[in-house]
Amino acid sequence: MTTMTTKATDPATTWPMVRAHQVHKRFGHVEVLKGIDLEVHSGEVVVLLGPSGSGKSTFLRCVNNLERIDSGSVHVEGELIGFRRAGSRVHHLRPREATRQRRDIGMVFQHFNLFPHQTVLGNVMEAPVGVLGMPKAKARETALRLLEQVGLAEKADAYPRQLSGGQQQRVAIARALAMRPKLMLFDEPTSALDPELVGEVLATMRDLARAGLTMLVVTHEIGFAREVADRVVFMDDGRIVESGTPEEVLDNPANPRTRAFLSRFL
Amino acid sequence: MATAPSPDSRDHPPAVVAVKERTEHPHAPDHPVDVAHAVPVRHPLRWLSVVVLAVLAAQLGHFLITNPNFEWGTVGAYFGAQVFGQGIATTVELTVVAMAIGTVGGVFVAVGRMSENRVLSTVCGAYVWFFRGIPVLVQLIFWYNLSALLPRISFGIPFGPEFISAETNTLISPWFAAILGLGLNEAAYMAEIVRGGLLGVDHGQTEAASALGMGRARILRRIVLPQAMRFIVPPTGSQVINMLKATSLVSVIALADLLYTAQSIYNRTFETIPLLVVACLWYLVMTSVLYVGQSFIERYYARGSSRNSPQSFWDFALFRRRTTRKAGPEPVSETPS
Q: Which sequence ranges are marked TM in the entry (chain B) (predicted)?
C-alpha cells in the first residue's frame, strides 16, 4: 500500500524527533512499562522524573533499542526503531540494522562506562573512526574540539581512571557528541557523582540544551528540570502520570503522586 | 596537669591516682614521646627457621657436590651439545604451535559457548567437557593410533563424492599427532580462561559501545577483548608454562623432543641421571624465560587499570624507578559556563 509510507520525507506527516506509541515492556512477570505515549520534538529538552522503579530508565533504553519493546512502537525521526515494516507485516531488525540505528542517538550512562583501556582521546575517537570510517586526523581534531567544549582538552592523554567522576561523565558526553547525534539520551547522568561534582556535568548539559540539541533526560535534579527543560514528564509505576511545562508540573502538580514525589525534594 | 576532680570522676580519689601515675610512668602527658628509636618486636622463631633452613641448604649443597652419581662433568658436556639443540627446538615448536591452536581455538569455543544460539553453545560446552575430561597423555596416544580406527582420511561432500584422500599413517605423523593432541586439549582449557575473561568485563562496556553504533564483532575486538586480556593473560602465562612441560609427554609417541633426546642418549650410554639433569636444567631455563615474558605482557595489559600510568618497557628492563605521571592539581574554575 503506497499510502502507508512512514518516512519523514512524507509531506503529509512531519514526524517529531521521538514518537513513542503505547510502549509496553516486561521483564519476566514484571510489567515495567504499561503503555507509554510520548513525543519529543526537534530541539526540545524533555526531563523524565519519577520514583526509582517507575520505568524511566527502561523507557530511555527502549528509545535506542538497548531494550526491545514488547508491544507498541518507537519512532525516531519517523524511523521505526528495532523493527522493519514489510507491507502489512513487521519484522525484527537484523543486528546489523539495529546497530546502524543507534549511530545517530547518543547516550550517556549513570556509570559513565568509559573504555578504561583507552585514553580520553581514544574514547572519543573510537566510534567516529571505527563506525563512521572518519580519517584519524579529522577524528582527532573533532575529538579535541569536543573535549575543549566540555572543558577537558588538557586531559586528552589521561586514562579514565585518572579523572574524577564529573570529568569522566563530561568525557562520556564528548564521546557521545562525537557521533553528531540528532538525539541525546541521558540516563541519570549525575546520580553516581559526589554532590560537589554534579554542577559541572549539569553545566555541560545546559550548554548543549542552549545549543539546540534534542535531549531526553532521566534525572533527579529538580533544579535542572526547572531551569533547562521545555517539558517535564512525571512517570510512576510504568505510566506517564503528568506532563507539561516545568511550571505546571513542578509548581502546580495536578496529580497527588507527583505532589508526593516532589514534596520529598523541598 | 590540672587534676581538679571532674564531676564524673570515678570512685578513687583523683589526686592520689594522678600522683601515682606521674611517678610510675616517665612519659606522662607533658613528656612528649618520640617513637623513631622504638625497639622492634623480636622474632626468635624466624631466626630458628633461618638456622634450620641454612642447615638443610648446606646438606643439599653437600649432597649435590659430593654425590658422584650426578656426574657433573657429563652434565656439562651434554648441556651445550647439538643433539639437545634439536630436542629443544622441537619442544619450543610444539609449545608455540599447540598454544597458537589452543588460543585461537579457545577464543572461538568461548565465543561459541556464550552465543545465543543454543545448539552452538551446547556443542562448544560439550567440546570443553570432552577434551578436559580425558588425560592429555591418552589423547596423544589416541591420535597417534588413529590409523587403527580410520585407515584412510578423505575430504569431500558428506555422504557424497571425495575430493582428497590419504592414508592416515602418512597424514598423522608423530608431530601432527602431538599437535592435534596438545592443541585440541589446550583449546578446551583456553576456552574456559577466555570465557572467564569475557564475563569479567562489565556489561556497561558493551552497552556503551552498542549505544555508539558499534557492531557485535567490533565491540568484541575493540572493547571487550582488550579489557578481558587483563583476566586472560595471567592464567594463559601459566598455560604456556604448563604446555612447555606437557610437551614432554610426546616422548611416548617417539617424537624427539627434549626429554626424548635425553632418554635416547641414556638408553645407549646408561648416564641416566646426568642426562635427566640436563633435561631439567633446560626446562628450567625455558620456563624462567617465559616467566619474565609473562610479566612484560601483564604490565602492558594492565594499562588504564590503575590511576598510575603503566611503567614503560625500558624502565622495567633497566630497573629504573616507576615514572608516575602526575595529573596535577585540578583547576578550580574548569566548569564551562
A: 47-65, 85-111, 123-144, 164-185, 272-293
Instruction: Calculate the CA A212 to chain-centre distance.
Output: 15
Amino acid at B319: F
DSSP letters, B310-321, are PPPHHHHHTTPP
Helix (H, G, I), strand (E, B), or coil: what is residue B157? coil
CB contact under 8 A, B307 and A160: no
Closest CA to B326 of B302, B306, B307: B307
d(CA B265, CA B91): 17
Long-range contacts of B52-60 (CB under 8 A, 24+ apart): none
Measured in residues, chain A has a length of: 266
Contact (CB<8Å) A131/B205: no
Using a CB-CB cut-off of 8 Å, the residues of chain B touching A162 are 307, 309, 327
Residue-level pLDDT, tens digit, chain B, 337 residues: 444 444 444 555 555 545 555 555 555 677 778 888 898 898 999 999 999 999 999 999 999 999 888 889 888 888 888 888 899 999 999 999 999 999 999 999 999 999 889 999 999 999 999 999 999 999 999 999 888 888 777 777 877 777 777 777 777 788 888 999 999 999 999 999 999 999 999 999 999 999 999 999 999 999 999 999 888 988 898 899 999 999 999 998 888 899 999 999 999 999 999 999 999 999 999 999 998 888 888 777 776 665 555 455 555 555 555 444 444 444 444 444 3
SS (H, E, C) B67-93: CHHHCHHHHHHHHCCHHHHHHHHHHHH
DSSP secondary structure code for residue B223 in this structure: I
Contact criterion met (CB below 8 Å) for A189 and A178:
no
Q: Judge whether A116 is closer than 8 Å to chain B, CB to CB.
A: yes
Alpha carbons within 13 A on the beta-carbon side of B35 = 1
> Residues in chain B, how many?
337
- Please, what is the angle between helix B82-113 and helix B225-246, to 10°? 140
Q: Which residue of B has its CA nearest to A64?
A: B211
- Give how far A100 is from chain B: nearest CA, Å: 6
CATH code of B71-303, in short, is: 1.10.3720.10
Answer whether B205 sits within 8 Å of A113, measured CB to CB.
Answer: yes
Which of these, B200, B191, B290, lies nearest to B238 by C-alpha position? B290
- Cell reading at B325: 605521571
Q: Tell me how far CA of residue B99 lies from CA of B93, B283, B312, B320, in angstroms.
A: 10, 17, 27, 33
Q: Domain coordinates of chain B in residue numbers?
A: 71-303
Q: Supply the ipTM of this predicted assembly.
A: 0.90
Q: Measure the CA–CA gap between A206 and A198, rounded to whole angstroms.
A: 12
Question: For residue A120, which residues of chain B lie inside 8 Å, CB to CB?
Answer: none
Locate all alpha helices (DSSP H) within chain B, ordered by sequence: 14-24, 44-66, 72-79, 82-113, 118-133, 136-144, 146-149, 168-171, 174-200, 203-211, 216-218, 225-246, 258-269, 272-301, 313-317
Q: Which residues are CB-neighbours of B60 under 8 A, at least 6 positions away?
A: none
**Chain A residue numbers touching B336 (CB-CB < 8 A):** 149-151, 200, 203-204, 207
Longest dimension (CA), chain B: 110
